[in-house]
Specification:
The termini are far apart. The protein is an alpha+beta fold. Strand 2 and strand 3 form a beta hairpin. It has a domain of 92 residues: Alpha-Beta Plaits, CATH 3.30.70.240. Helix 1 packs parallel to helix 4. Strands 2-3-1-4 form a four-stranded antiparallel beta sheet, with helices on both faces. It has six helices and four strands.
């Protein structure tokens, strides 16, 4: 019987990559620039926002935005954020509505990773309220946040 290995945290994976001295310019196994179609991203956001109508205490909505030079680290972080429940809005912008302790865990992990190597990277964590989200406007290719945050009303006749 094969023994199951404990999955390593993102921090441990990055540390292992650094110790191995891998070339940051080496080809990646997947293209970090791939994004699901806009309609799929909108549907993910819509589902998250509909869930947020019945908000429970201890949850926080927020955006994460980053500028990370190293392709491998950027790819690991992108996969990590998606595993933690974040939805990719643009190539380096994510939205999440998750428990506050997970939000803090993400902040801590990304801070530790950023401190591991010499870089000029930046990562922004922007908590957002429902009021702010309702007033959000997008210029250019629109993700209709206004439509997604409207409360659904049903009338029975």
């Amino acid at each position: 019987m094969k023994k199951k290995r404990k999955e390593k945290s993102l921090f441990e994976k990055i540390r292992k990559v650094r110790r191995a001295g891998l070339d940051p310019g080496a080809p990646l196994h997947c293209d970090p620039e791939d994004l699901p179609p806009l309609s799929a991203r909108i549907n993910q956001l819509k589902a998250m926002l509909e869930k947020s109508v019945l908000r429970k205490p201890g949850f926080v909505m927020f955006f994460i935005m980053y500028d990370i030079e190293n392709n491998k680290i950027r790819t690991h972080i992108a996969k990590y954020l998606i595993r933690k429940g974040c939805v990719r809005i643009q190539k380096s912008v994510y939205f999440a509505d998750i428990k506050r302790n997970v939000f803090k865990e993400i902040q801590k992990t990304l801070k530790e990773i950023n401190a591991m190597y010499d870089n000029d990277d930046s990562i922004f964590f922007i908590p957002i309220s429902e009021d702010h989200l309702n007033n959000l406007r997008v210029v250019g290719r629109n993700i209709d946040f206004e439509y997604m945050t409207k409360h659904v009303s049903t009338m029975f006749i």
